[in-house]
Amino acid sequence: MKDTLRWAYALNQWNVRLDVFVRHEDQQRALKTVSACGFDTIELASGTGRWDNISRPEVILLNHGSHQGFLDFLRRAQVRGVSSVFWDPQAPTEEEEGYAFRSTANPADADAIVEWSKPFVDFVAGVGADQLVVRPVGSAWMTPPLDADGIKVVADVWNRIGERTAAAGIGLALHYDCLGAVHTHAELTGLLEATDPATVGFALDTAELTVGGIDPVAFYREHADRVTHVHLKDTRYADTGEEYRMPGAESTMLKGGAGRRIERWFYELGTEGGLVDVPGFVAALREHGYPGWVVVESDHGGNPAELAMLNSWYLQRVLGVAK
């Protein structure tokens, strides 16, 4: 995409199960689709184990030999590089972290999580990407409500990792998750206030904020100086009944609509009935001279190739971004 904003595309919508995005030819097909749609830069999402061989830094390097080897693999599909890598330290992993389950809300886990960040920091720097994008805290249903002291515990972990990313010459961006224990506007602003703005940025996800009841355009205008990364997608629904607190919300809400029969929460740009003011949000980015990446994603929203083409069409035909 040829524009004053920097556009990238997230590969997470292809990687829906461990057994469907493993072969290099399948990955090349996805990369070529993204490239054909006008995106020459991608965002990766972390995973675990040998089956997630385009998601885990150690496994990527085993498959491709080096950071340069992986970049050469991308360039075979006319994708020139990586904008960012998404990492959730709360997600259960296999051999890489000894099958441990940890949380940034637990002070006893802080040292281990900081150490876990090292391969991701090294990989992001090694492939020339800009941002390590992270889920700052686990799901609300798994964590007692966080008061100011609890938010400070979470913030302290990310301040330590922010020092590590800054030393490596990359950025750290905390990604809002509509299921997260940091959920309300007050909790989110509290987390930003408790982190060091020099080393810890914010990854604004337009759909996740909207589902969580926060207006992404207003929030961006209020906190433009902290936003260092963007995930751009749409939604037709908001969580109006605190469904994010339901046990197993990852399935009961995001995959089942918590009784509302919502087939999916995340949609392509320009979806009918979309709640995100995409043109208004992009206009606000331009108004403030936003310098970071805008990563378009659909987040398991349907057929990935179809959604990539729909998103590309919207950028070109509605937003006027030249391919």
Automatic annotation (TrEMBL):
Domain Xylose isomerase-like TIM barrel: start-end pairs: 33-305
Coiled coil start-end: none
PANTHER family: HYDROXYPYRUVATE ISOMERASE, INOSOSE DEHYDRATASE
Protein name: Inosose dehydratase
Gene3D superfamilies assigned: Divalent-metal-dependent TIM barrel enzymes
Residues spanning the signal sequence: none
Pfam families cross-referenced by the UniProt entry: AP_endonuc_2 (PF01261)
Source superkingdom: Bacteria
